[in-house]
Write a structure and sequence with these properties.
The protein is an all-alpha fold. The protein has one domain: Cytochrome c-like domain (Cytochrome Bc1 Complex, Chain D, domain 2), CATH 1.10.760.10. Helix content is about 65%, strand content about 0%. The protein contains 5 helices and no strands. The N and C termini lie far apart (about 40 Å). The structure holds heme C. Heme C binds next to α3 and α4.
Length: about 110
């Protein structure tokens, strides 16, 4: 019985984590980053592709992207041409933990599907 309870807790927290990342992304990033269409900002599929090319390991991807979003700047950008085209992304006041939740969701999500 104990085992069953433990298992159901692990499953529900992992579902919660996935939903949290998705909720945060949809509420805070999607206004500018459409899944596949680049309108006022590059599409998330495009951003993700650039970051995946640079970082194949999830940990590196998440750390680099979270730090960049915390403090957008030209020096550490992976998408110079996007800055020229759309101008630099504004700084959003998020905690590092929140950003890691969001960028982890981005790593795991194929936005072209
Ligand atoms: C007000 C519009 C806006 C919002 C909201 C926004 N972005 Fe952006 N973002 C941009 C624009 C414009 C660019 C392209 C220029 C640049 O790279 O700075 C960009 C670029 C990026 C890049 C590429 C960085 C690079 O290497 O140049 C990442 C990663 C990113 N956004 C993540 C996010 C995440 C995650 C969120 C939500 C927490 C978010 N953005 C919310 C406008 C926005």
């Amino acid at each position: 019985m104990k085992k069953i309870i433990f298992l159901s807790i692990t499953i529900s927290t992992s579902i919660f984590a996935t939903n949290l990342g998705s909720l945060l992304f949809n509420g805070n990033c999607k206004t500018c980053h459409h899944s596949t269409k680049s309108i006022s900002a590059p599409s998330m599929a495009n951003v993700r592709e650039n970051y995946l090319n640079a970082f194949s390991k999830k940990e590196d991807f998440v750390n680099y992207m979270s730090k960049w979003v915390k403090k957008p700047n030209e020096e550490t950008s992976l998408m110079d041409s996007a800055i020229k085209k759309y101008s630099l992304m504004p700084e959003l006041a998020f905690e590092m933990e929140t950003l890691k939740e969001i960028t982890s969701y981005i790593y795991d999500t194929d936005f072209t599907k």
